[in-house]
Amino acid sequence: MSDKPSIIRETDEDARNQARILVHTASHAALAVIDPETGFPSVSRVLTAMDTDGVPVILVSGLSSHTKALVKDPRASALFGDPGKGDPLAHPRLTVRCSAERVDQQGEAHARIRKLFLERHPKSKLYIDFPDFCFFRLVPLDASLNGGFGRAYILSSKDLVIL
């Protein structure tokens, strides 16, 4: 048994709010997927928007390796938060472990998400309707918040989504 104090703080409303702000204000994230051919993690940058329930959404091309990986294995992680001036590790960031759910292009959700995505990323109008592009909802499973030096938290999916 260790006498060392835990570096993880008890999740409180301030941590929940900071996590939600990081996700909701982000225009992009680093998306980590599992490469189906090698089994290695692979990371890429994706544009993000928010569905009405607070679940992050991404628009991706079926030609990209990260889309092919999500189709084979929906497990992913997304890193939200931009470093500001100075030490990039001093700025808050949130890693969300999620399950990627492809959005049916014929479904009701697609029109809603398309509208929300265009509001966040108007330039995506150039390619949003290309036949190889699709949306995925990144449904949170849990998250790890680093709110700055000495401020680490573990959050549940309920801490992140709007019920």
TrEMBL record:
It holds the Pfam family CREG_beta-barrel. SUPFAM superfamilies: FMN-binding split barrel. GO terms for cellular component: cytoplasm. It comes from the Bacteria. Residues 12-156 form the CREG-like beta-barrel domain. PANTHER family: CELLULAR REPRESSOR OF E1A-STIMULATED GENES, ISOFORM A, CREG1 PROTEIN. This is Pyridoxamine oxidase protein. It comes from Rhizobium freirei PRF 81.
